[in-house]
Amino acid sequence: GCEVRNSQQQPQTYQQQLQKHQETLKHKTSELTTLEKNLAQLQNTSQHKKTLLAKRLRAIYKMGHLGYLTPLLAIASYDNMQQQVKYLRLISEQDQQLLAEVEQDQQTIRTQKKALEQQKHDIAQTQKQIQQEQAQIEAQKIQKDKLLKAIQKDKTQYTQMIAKLETTREE
């Protein structure tokens, strides 16, 4: 009686674990999809910023070794020069900001790629757990079936023995 009760409880426990891991797998797969979308979007944005930065660097290179100062040296009046310095400072700040953003994006991409790999690893582990639990459930079913067959065989034998005893007692 106790063996049968234990064999009935264990598959339910394995079944509960299996359901829990299947839900975890579903959640992790959904997270993985989100991570992949975010990463692709970030890579596109980063590529666009890199292209802008490359254009700016080419423009600076074409200005010569004085870079930003080249336009200033061509200006005759002091008022125009002040205005030009203001614009050049703004351009320089924007270039620095763009460079900082590209560097930050690259760091974020590396971090997200690591998270993506970890997520894939977690999914593989969860799938492995699910397979093990399914195998355990199957093994429990086989064991339960064997036990039930043994009990039925014993019952049949006991029924035959009782029938024999009753026939011998009647004689």
Throw out a few tags for this protein.
single chain, rod-shaped, 93% helix, 171 residues
If you had to describe this structure to a student in words, what would you say it looks like?
This protein has 171 residues and is mainly α. Helices cover 93% and strands 0% of the residues. It contains three helices and no strands. Helix 1 packs antiparallel against helix 3. The radius of gyration is 38 Å and the shape is rod-shaped. The two termini are 35 Å apart. 3% of the residues are buried. The mean pLDDT is 84.
Give the proportion of residues in helices: over 70%
Tell me, rounded to a whole number, the average pLDDT: 84
Point out poorly predicted stretches.
Answer: none
Radius of gyration (Å): 38 Å
The first-to-last residue Cα distance is 35 Å
Given the helix and strand composition, which structural class is it? mainly alpha
Element order: H for helix, E for strand: HHH
Concise synopsis of the structure shown:
Helix content is about 95%, strand content about 0%. The protein is an all-alpha fold and about 170 residues long.
Task: Give the secondary structure arrangement, pairings included.
Blueprint (H helix, E strand, L loop, with lengths): L1 H61 L6 H5 L4 H93 L1
Helix pairs in contact: 1-3
